[in-house]
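To: structure desk
From: M.T.
Subject: fold request, one chain
Message: Could you run this one when you get a chance? Sequence is below, nothing fancy, just the single chain.
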Amino acid sequence: MNILIFGGEGQLGCELVQQSQIFGHAAKAPLETQANIIDINEVKHTIDAYRPSLVINSAAYTAVDKAETEKKIAFAVNKTGAGNIARCCALAHIPLIHISTDYVFDGQKGSPYLETDPISPVGIYGRSKAEGEAEVRSRLNMHIIIRTSWLYGVHGHNFVKTILKLARENEFIQVVADQHGSPTSALDLAEAILIICGQIENRRTIDWGTYHYCGQGITTWYEFAEAILELSRLKSTIKTLRVKPISTAEYPTNATRPQFSALDCRRITHYFGINPKPWQESLKRVIEKIYSSADEA
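Reply: Done. Structure tokens follow.
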């Protein structure tokens, strides 16, 4: 299958490009400077030029705190950009896989969110992604929206690489311990997306719509950080001696974050046979890749 990836320079996009050949797909990912998704003419030109069988949109504005003061650009990328891609896919009769987030929920449910649960984002980032989802649904029938959570990986900026950097520089670090969610490896998510691509290519019928995918298991940012450091100590000497758990109130940020944003992934398992791995197992895999890679944190 010929796949066009918007956002190929991001942490998920890099994995999609690298893994696509393993899954038997030919993927192309133009640079952001060559395919600005905010400009619908550029999107149309890119799709017309590449003539893909399927499009993946992993491009997003993901600076959660900066979004509170950069509302215009957040909505331009996450809403308008998503809508532009969906419109152009509709014109070309091409299916779209669009990546969204757990931050479309307010975090008050207290148990893993289903795809059918009402959304109620508490910040600009979550709102912009929620409206991007709505754009995709309204403009293209042949779509798969995948909501994910706490994404990290070898490439780009993410929580794992931030903790590794802090661990090399500080004897003590503080991490929020009252927000719950499910860490998701970008490599795992890329593999899940590419499995779905194969099924779209080979199945007669597809259950289009919204799906959840995240690492198996629920943890806190504090427990996640502890696990990162435990694995890191097996690979390298780090400075950090102790991680102190703190409350959200003790770590004020511009954006409000959901207190509980774990996702229920049974639907993606039921329809596509995809079983998320335990987040601890996936973290070990990523830590090993970081330390064996030239792209170390």
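Reply (cont.): The chain has a mean pLDDT of 95. Let me know if you need anything else for the meeting.
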